[in-house]
Amino acid sequence: MRRSPSSELPTVAAVGVVVVVTAVALLSTPAAAQSVNRSAIDDLNEQLLYVALPLVLFVEITLIYALYRFRNNDDPQPTTKDPALEITWTAATGVILLFVGLSAFFVLANPYITPSVAGQTDAANENTVEVEVVAYQWGWEFRYQGENVTTQSRLVLPRDRDVAISLVTRDVIHSFYVPKLGLKQDVIPGQTTRLRTRATETGEYRLYCAELCGVGHTRMHGTVSVVSQEEYEEWLDDQRAEN
Ligand SMILES: [Cu+2]
Fold it and tell me: How many alpha carbons lie under 13 Å from residue 239 in its C-beta half-sphere?
């Protein structure tokens, strides 16, 4: 007995989705994140990918199958009313949107992603490294609070310690952007904006200005070096000796 096209369609689409999702899951190896900020953002991306991928595949496979299966259909019939089906797809869409909204909300509410959530005093404890970043046309200055150390272009941070960064500008709007550490914050004239992080991997990370700020904008970059606690203290001593 020949099966009707309508019963073949979901089966073909579902099998295709399972095969492709399994292949992607097996091939992808998650890389370690370089900071708690980056980790929160990567985890969200991954969660949303696992929701989005099956949906995209289901729709595409269904479309391709329907194009092929009904390619010689000279007598198309209008679809019949099916309230149960309509309620199902409306509710399913609602559940997916709720999941996406809640996932994003919990990442935004993370005090490392939105430092103002925790309040300024809550963010700083005695073990927190506090740095003031001064942005200007066209460079970056870093002032280590309580250490009497100021540097240009190069921000050195200890690994596995909380860092509270306050940002001000001498002139126009700039934006402090370190993609590998998941950090991005506008620096606005007349305001102090904030960032909070804890780097978890040592290394050299590129810092960019992400706000077009004049003819020297493309030169407005720097380095963020994440080092061990011992190296950090040695570095601070060297800087004080140089001053
Ligand atoms: Cu700039």
Answer: 18
The 3-state DSSP composition of the chain as helix, strand, coil percent (nearest 5) reads 45, 25, 30
Give the Å distance between the CA of 97 and the centre of ligand 1. Answer: 36
Among the listed residues 237, 116, 127, 225, the one whose alpha carbon sits nearest the alpha carbon of residue 167: 116
Cα of 217 vs centre of ligand 1, distance in Å, is 5
Q: Please give the domain boundaries of the chain with CATH numbers for all domains.
A: 5-70+84-108 (no CATH), 120-242 (2.60.40.420)
Residues with CB under 5 A from ligand 1 (ion): 174, 209, 213, 220
Q: Tens digits of per-residue pLDDT, 82-132?
A: 999 999 999 999 999 999 999 999 999 998 998 875 555 555 677 899 999
- Token look-up 């720097």 returns 222
Interatomic CA distance for residues 65 and 170, integer angstroms: 60
Report yes or no: 103 and 41 within 8 Å, Cβ to Cβ: no
Between CA 11 and CA 58 the distance in angstroms is: 10
pTM given for the model: 0.78
Task: Find the 95 Cα to ligand 1 centroid distance in Å.
Answer: 41
